[in-house]
Amino acid sequence: LGAETRFLDFPDTRLVATPEVAAQVARVITDIRPDGLLTWGDGWTRGMRHPDHQACGKIFRDAVTLARMAKTVAPTNPHRAPVPTFTYRDAHSALPAVALEVEPYLDGIRELGRFYHREIGFGDPEWLEQRLRAAGHRRGLNFAEEFDAWETMPGTVEALLPAEPIPAAVVPERNGAIDR
Asked: What is the pTM of this model?
């Protein structure tokens, strides 16, 4: 995939989303300085959600916020740039959806899916194909991947990044000033 890999010293199948763990990940975020985050969300069908995946999603979503706080990440500099967050979408999600057309990437997706199925025994290639087709059908596309859009505009996009932020809502006047 061409992604940089970092391994953190967390226990397999016993990961717990604590403020201390999120602060540790926040310090990694200040080092990497990402412009987006793809992780696990909260709404998943029973049996499909591994407890570590659920904990990891909460840890990383919390860490993006903590990475902005100087006292949490000292002595490194905070990372205060926007980090649009996208989480894997499931039928139980209540968040707005953003969909990405994945037809140009099908060869790589299929190859990675076969590898995962061969090495772990989960994710039958037919299941993956049907899931991508169904998401595409909902969007008028042949194949799509849907994500929960946490801070970005929903809809179909050509790329997740750069993301279109949700327009800032005007907060009611307070002491003669308008907060945004």
From this structure: 0.83
Positive or negative, the Cα torsion across 9, 33, 161, 179? Answer: positive
Dist. CA 164–CA 84, nearest whole Å:
9
Q: What tokens were used for 14?
A: 């016993």
3-state secondary structure (DSSP) of residue 116: helix
Which distant-in-sequence residues (6+ apart) come within 8 Å of 43 by Cβ? Answer: 90, 91, 92, 93, 94, 95, 148
Cβ neighbours of residue 105 closer than 8 Å, sequence gap 6 or more: none
H/E stretch holding 6 reads: none
Q: Cα separation of 8 and 25, whole Å?
A: 9
Six-digit token string for 153: 């505009």
- Residue 2: which pLDDT band, with cuts at 50, 70 and 90? confident
What sign does the CA torsion over 29, 35, 41, 47 have? negative
